[in-house]
Amino acid sequence: MSDEEFHTAASGQPVLPKEIDATYLAQLGEGTIAYIRPVLAGEIAESVPQARELPPGTRLYALHGAAGAPIMLTSTREMALAQAHEQHLTTVSVH
Q: Which of 23, 33, 70, 86 could form an SS bridge with 66, CB 3.0 to 4.6 Å?
């Protein structure tokens, strides 16, 4: 985040930009916040070659960083949560 996007007031409190958008929020949480999203193997087969070896309806769980970058893919939500904990990430609900 550049100095233009996020300033600190003399009081030490952050001064927010005039407009807060999804990009700003993603940058704010990068490295500290993650989310878990269920996916089907068939939905990600083109981007994840290993998923092609599974039946298309197989449910998997993807752990993503705040900006949406994938961190890992696993077969259980619990394993995704454990990985987030291991990387000191706080998981949040995304609707």
A: 33
